[in-house]
Amino acid sequence: MKKLISRLPNLKGYYFLAGMCLIGELIFTLAMAQSLKVLIDSSLMQAQDSFYLYLGILVLTAVFLALCISGQTLSVGKISEAITYTLRKEGTQKLLALPQYKLDKMHSGDSMSKLTNDLQMVSQFLNHDAYLLVSRPLLALVSFVYLLYLNWQLTIISIAVLPLLFSTTFFLGKPISKFSKEQQDELSNMNNTTQDILGGISIVKAFNLEDLMRDKFSKQVETSMNRGIELAKKRAVLESFTVGISFLPFVVTFGLGGYLTVRGSLTPGELLAFINLLNNLTFPLAQLPSHYGSYKASMQGLKRIYDLLNEEDERKNGESFDVKDASTLVEVKNLTFGYDDNSVLKNLSFKVKKGETVALVGSSGSGKSTIFKLLTGFYTNYQGKIDMFEKDIESWNLDKLRSNISTVSQETFLFPTTIRENLTMVCENCTETQLIKAATIANAHEFIKKQPNGYDTVVEEKGDNYSGGQKQRLAIARALLKEPDLLLLDEATSSLDTESEALVQKALDNVLIGSTSIVIAHRLSTIINADRILVLDKGNIVEEGNHKELLNKKGVYHNLYHKQFDSRKGGVA
């Protein structure tokens, strides 16, 4: 919790207010008990002056006590919201700052669970239990001291059962943390499954996987429910024991206190004040198990959040270099890389000169997309050397490096906002002329104009109101608006219909003129005019040359090209 408080904005005023209100609550609680004692005794002695005086004091004390409680609520609420805000903001910032290789290993549902379910549990504890966990023991302590002042013998006898209360709390409260962690883990699993279902709903429906997903989710819900029931049972047993035990001091007080009052050793006012303060001693302690259980559960949630926050950020050091005079934009030397134990690239070397279009071709799994991830600094655990714009990639500030590169991925992602915002988010202060020029080059301007609100038409989630070809052209326009020195293009024409493919191909032809580009080609017809083609097979460059040279070699590229050409000619592609 100290680590958490250290991350908060300056809230000294609210900490001070909470502390002052706590002190006020303790003082006015004792003052009410004392006023009540004198009020009752003076009324029995028919001392009207004292009665009205202490009645007024009692009313004023109640008002000040209410103000202190209101101040507590305000300050604790502000602190709780500040903590929740800070954790949510830092959690989101952490996700944005993590290196890509860590994000690839995370399930988005688990990350969402940490920033929703776990954070909600922490927030509830801070709002409802944290202050009570501090204030109630202090209230019990000052009440205990005042009870000793009233009648130390009655106090000692009345609270003799409290050690039993504490031992019960400790013994029965231990399993709560374990079950709370298990329940949070199950909630995370449920989030993962929900994310999978929503993300792949078209596949689920197309392959009739509804029953499979329903059964999987139902089992997770049932497991989570069982964990929740077990947790509720543990808390119920704990609270029933503690509440039952907490009533024993009252039984003793009514019996022995009544006897002492009859004998004259205790006044009726003292007995009533004693019972009032005994309530402030026993019930706060009886509620401690519940507060403690909430504390343990929230600490499990906080631990999961900190597991995320403590992940190492993507490196932010490095320099920004002027790339205008660089003649070689990419140079890879003896590059070897693999995911975990799976080797992907083996001793790879190639260059990309300024103004060149270099194509990467090869079968699925040959390492084409991995090269893009390495060139943009997404992965760093490689062997060999990568120079970007004639500087070692390790010496680059990655944000500055990426500002010189635009990437168009095979899976186009559009944000659920307007077309204009989707395109211009990569270009600060971009003009309308620049926007239209980029869209025109990408062969997207005409279809954008036909939208209900043109460039201000809202894109649906995942771009579902646009075809694959339209999304590709929007992605190309977005990349062009950045005016990159290097364009990394993973073309996806293989998944498009003939008309869309032709439109995207025209956009690609426009883009590649005069630019420096590396293109991952899925249809070899799209890279016939590339300056050089690198043919990858099992992580190695097995052939290199232009289209004509590679066909004449009658090697791997020749076979790939004719296999693809023949299949399309036969209407299979």
Molecular structure report:
By secondary structure, this protein is an alpha/beta fold. The protein contains 19 helices and 10 strands. Strand 4 and strand 5 form a beta hairpin. It folds into 3 domains: 308 residues, ABC transporter type 1, transmembrane domain (ABC transporter transmembrane region fold), CATH 1.20.1560.10; 142 residues, Rossmann fold (3-Layer(aba) Sandwich); 76 residues, P-loop containing nucleotide triphosphate hydrolases (Rossmann fold).
Could you write a compact summary of the structure shown?
The chain is an alpha/beta fold and 573 residues long. It contains 19 helices and ten strands. Helix 17 links the parallel strand 7 and strand 8.
SSE order and pairing:
Elements (H helix, E strand, L loop, with lengths): L1 H5 L5 H33 L3 H50 L2 H6 L2 H21 L1 H29 L3 H38 L1 H6 L3 H54 L4 H42 L18 E12 L2 E12 L3 E6 L5 H8 L7 E6 L2 E2 L5 H5 L2 E4 L10 H6 L7 H10 L3 H5 L18 H14 L4 E5 L7 H15 L4 E4 L11 E6 L2 E6 L1 H7 L2 H14 L4
Parallel strand pairs: 3-8, 3-9, 6-7, 7-8
Antiparallel strand pairs: 1-2, 1-4, 4-5, 9-10
Helix pairs in contact: 2-3, 2-6, 2-10, 3-5, 5-7, 5-10, 6-9, 6-10, 7-9, 7-10, 9-10, 14-16, 16-17, 18-19
Keywords: ATP-binding, Membrane, Nucleotide-binding, Transmembrane, Transmembrane helix
Main location: membrane
Protein name: ABC transporter ATP-binding protein
